[in-house]
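Please fill in the sequence for the structure shown.

STRUCTURE ENCODING:
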């Protein structure tokens, strides 16, 4: 394993201690737009919009300006600067603002929305409405999800490098002051297949039964990790969308259509490679999405296991229970924990757990294949997922607005 790969690992071994690495420190240096005289006015306008706390954006900084200048050409930035966050703009709106023919604007917008996937587009072809996307989660995921490793261009590679540099500043930590559970991890199938307390929402096959359309794309996090030489070698094609989400992705060519059986096989292969599957924390029959994540590359996981910040993961339905009378303190459970929640002292025969980091995936149970000292037990008073996307929006919006206000006050 290369030095780069070692630096990306979640767990480290110091003598007889196996446990999480020391947390990274925030490395963000806010700047002013006037500090970038070499950037075009339209790029600076776009950067200012993407830095808005309502989009969970970073403050103006060198990394953001470099990212925006690569993401959009000057002509494209001239169009994007007119887009809003909440209310969409039509081709005619932007054409008037840019004093250009609608046909020219339409060509630029359609490229950005459907080929590059860097802006949002809604509505039928004759009434399309365009809006800004957040950088993360948003632009980063949509740009890379439809690009296979073989199709990665130099532009995509540079995009990944610049996003990684922006992410590594730790700017996202500002938005985790009062996080709400946006995603939930499913226990690995093998550890709950016979568990009497497992719920339908814990089982991948039951969740998929609600949908007829499935599409698979590439893992954006592992693709960008590969680009900067910090990949883990695990499979990439296992981001699965369902229902309306899949229909949209398949229609526009950034998801490959698969059957339900194939989707389940993809998720089973992901688990076999030490990945854990998550869903959005909502019970929706219209659309759903599931990533298969590793602790070393997943950006959502890294906020917790590398920056030691609160995550946006829902509290797990199951937590591991350790029978220390059976434990050999070999440390395999700690090595396999994607969140760095376990610390084992192999000499002193002690075990510690940061329960707040545990996502209830059960990989520690699978790792303990000889001693069988770990079992998954249900959490009392477990909160079920939101009933609908509307319910999630209603319950999470107040805290998002409050956090956005605090971030705005911090950097204004």
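FILLED IN BY: designer on duty
SEQUENCE:
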């Amino acid at each position: 394993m290369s030095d780069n790969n070692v630096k990306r690992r979640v767990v480290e071994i110091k003598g007889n201690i196996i446990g999480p690495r020391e947390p990274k420190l925030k490395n963000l240096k806010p700047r002013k737009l006037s500090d970038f005289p070499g950037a075009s006015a339209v790029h600076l306008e776009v950067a200012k919009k993407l830095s808005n706390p309502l989009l969970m954006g970073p403050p103006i900084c060198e990394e953001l300006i470099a990212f925006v200048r690569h993401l959009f050409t000057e002509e494209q930035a001239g169009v994007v600067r007119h887009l809003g966050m909440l209310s969409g703009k039509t081709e005619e709106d932007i054409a008037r603002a840019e004093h250009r023919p609608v046909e020219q604007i339409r060509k630029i917008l359609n490229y950005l929305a459907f080929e590059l996937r860097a802006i949002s587009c809604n509505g039928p072809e004759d009434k399309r409405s365009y809006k800004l996307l957040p950088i993360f989660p948003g632009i980063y995921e949509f740009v890379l999800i439809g690009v296979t490793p073989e199709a990665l261009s130099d532009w995509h590679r540079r995009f990944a490098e610049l996003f990684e540099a922006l992410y590594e500043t730790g700017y996202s930590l500002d938005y985790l002051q009062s996080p709400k559970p946006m995603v939930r991890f499913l226990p690995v199938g093998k550890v709950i297949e016979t568990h009497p307390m497992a719920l339908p929402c814990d089982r991948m096959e039951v969740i998929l039964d609600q949908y007829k359309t499935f599409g698979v794309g590439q893992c954006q996090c592992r693709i960008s990790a590969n680009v900067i030489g910090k990949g883990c070698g695990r499979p990439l094609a296992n981001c699965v969308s369902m229902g309306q989400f899949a229909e949209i992705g398949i229609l526009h060519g950034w998801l490959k259509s698969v059957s339900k059986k194939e989707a389940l096989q993809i998720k089973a292969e992901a688990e076999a490679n030490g990945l854990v599957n998550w869903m959005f924390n909502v019970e929706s029959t219209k659309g759903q999405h599931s990533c298969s994540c590793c602790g070393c590359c997943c950006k959502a996981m890294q906020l917790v296991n590398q920056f030691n910040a609160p995550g946006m993961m829902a509290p797990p339905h199951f937590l591991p229970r350790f029978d220390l009378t059976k434990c050999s303190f070999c440390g395999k459970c700690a090595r396999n924990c994607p969140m760095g929640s376990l610390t084992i002292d192999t000499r002193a025969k002690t075990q510690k757990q940061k329960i707040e980091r545990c996502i209830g995936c059960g990989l520690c149970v699978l790792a303990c294949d000889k001693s069988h000292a770990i079992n998954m037990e249900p959490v009392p008073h477990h909160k079920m997922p939101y009933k609908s996307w509307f319910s999630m929006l209603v319950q999470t919006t107040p805290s998002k607005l409050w956090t956005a206000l605090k971030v705005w006050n911090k950097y204004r």
